[in-house]
Amino acid sequence: MDRTTITLHSAYQIGEVDPRVFGGFLEHIGRAVYEGVYDPRSAHADEAGFRTDVLNAMRRLRMTAMRYPGGNFASGYHWMDGIGPREARPTVRELAWQSLESNAFGTDEYIALCRKMSWTPMITVNLGTGTPEEARNWLEYCNAPAGSKYADMRVANGNPDPYAVKLWCLGNEMDGPWQLGHVPASDYAIRAQQAAKMMKDLDRNVELVLCGSCTTGLPSYMAWDQEVLDYVGDLADYISLHRYVGNRTDDTADYLAVTASIDRQIEEMDAACRFIQAKHRSKKRAYLCFDEWNVWYKSSAMDGEGKHAPHLIEEIYNLEDALVVAGFLNSFIRHADVVKIANIAQIVNVIAPLMTRGDELLIQPTFYPFEMMAQRGAGVALQTIVDGPRYEGATNGDVPVIDASAILNGDILHIFVANRSLSESAEVLVAPADRTIVGVGAAELLAGPGAKVANSFDQPDLVVSRPFTGARLVDEGALMTLPPLSFVALSLQLKA
Ligand code: AHR
Fold first, then answer.
1. According to the model, what pLDDT value does residue 166 have?
2. How far is the CA of 364 from the centre of ligand 1 (A)?
3. DSSP for 273-293?
């Protein structure tokens, strides 16, 4: 294969990478909360019942914003069921996942976990079966100082200081017919505006995320977004995007080319936001909150059959899935000017990079690109001009074989490159136009013995990141060779 050259210039900046693009998502679904982050019966449980093995692995991912409690679950959730003395909390039949919810883990446990992990809390209110006023009351419980009804409940539950939760999602996937309380865009817009008005009146520091199109596949795609953005106007700080992808036709080349479609989805939503800003002649625009994204297509177990913590959508990930996860993150970095928040869905057991089995913990291949990129996530995204071989994905169209993004942090340049070739190694030259590379710093490679290879409890290390020593300095920059189906994160020292 011909060499690929990635040309960059430190003046050609896309924007500061918002740390919140390395966010996660913790929903009350399956074994995500119970047997995931919270399991008082586990040998790994700390005094609060949190699983330390899971949390220690999560720390490596340096996650920022952590969305909670759903997802579809949020649209039937009444937050007051999850506060107060545990023995008095009701067990309820929840309908999103046909499961039993014990409410042993609720708002106070979530905030305690966020504090323990240094996560930024991000709460989704119930605008399905809940009311705008219930949402406003939840905000008062979390953020108001002592001295009013709901704030005093928090104090009575042992938490005198306000939680200062800044990020709030105005419902979840309200455009989806599967959603509890789904309504047409015009109805949702009214609910969201009412909630937003009360919430901003109560706490003017909150930032609100409007429900945008939850898939590009619904007939209402973009029309929904235009209508709700138009109605809610400047009360919306962000609009949400969701995307789950998969290799449904067993065409790896096309699957890996899905980045073209993710780029397009971001650009289309950005266009909707700019259109509404122009229409309103407003100084303010809504930014993009990609608050659910991942690979999800193999597991369809979504009926909890009335059980507590059932095994639901426990997807097993392989190398090609990990390369797609790298592709999502590359796309967010390439759009750092507009994508301000993104949450991989989800964090443990349910479509997640981590999986528990009893007291054991498995790290899935999708863990590694997130770790490799999050650890290098601070800085300014640079434009990457990728000049090299290309191919045509059957449905996703024309893409470069090398998928890339770059972050500049002072005199350190971080490069993220995936080789999408199924069979050929790729020679890649990183060529900063205005700076000199003086050293190759830390670098890791994610590769494996085949696209479909996954880790298992018996063989946990088949697809893991390893130190990469294949980059060297040449006159024009840094040169490296990537094996087929691989991903490299590389830090380069630039001359001051
Ligand atoms: O992440 C699993 C589910 O996917 C979420 O609950 C929902 O919002 C989406 O459809």
1. 98
2. 20
3. HHHHHHHHT-S---EEEEEEE
Cβ(172) – ligand 1 distance below 6 Å: yes
User: What are the residue boundaries of the structural domains of the chain, listed by start?
Assistant: 4-9+381-494, 18-378
If you take atom 3 of ligand 1, which residue's CA is the nearest one? Answer: 71
Q: Confidence band (pLDDT; 50, 70, 90) for 185? A: very high
Q: What is the DSSP string of 443-472?
A: EEEE--S-TT-B--SSSTTSS-EEE---EE
**Which residues pair with residue 24 across a beta bridge?**
66, 344
Residue 173 appears among annotated catalytic residues: yes
Taking the CA of residue 74 as reference, the ligand 1 atom at the shortest distance is 6
Could you tell me the fold of the domain covering 18-378? TIM Barrel (3.20.20)
- Arithmetic mean of pLDDT, 435-450: 97
Atom of ligand 1 nearest to the CA of 176: 10
The alpha carbon of 296 and the centre of ligand 1 are apart by a number of angstroms equal to 10
Domain spanning 4-9+381-494 has what CATH number? 2.60.40.1180
pLDDT in tens, 101-136: 999 999 999 999 999 999 999 999 999 999 999 999
pLDDT of residue 416: 98
The atom of ligand 1 lying closest to the CA of 244 is 4
Q: Which pLDDT tens digit goes with each residue over 332-373?
A: 999 999 999 999 999 999 999 999 999 999 999 999 999 999
Measured distance CA(349)–CA(315) in Å, rounded: 8
- Confidence class for position 201, pLDDT limits 50, 70, 90: very high
Q: Ligand 1: does its nearest atom lie under 6 Å from the Cβ of 292?
A: yes
Alpha carbon nearest to ligand 1 atom 8, residue: 71
CA neighbours within 13 Å on the CB side: how many for 367?
Answer: 28
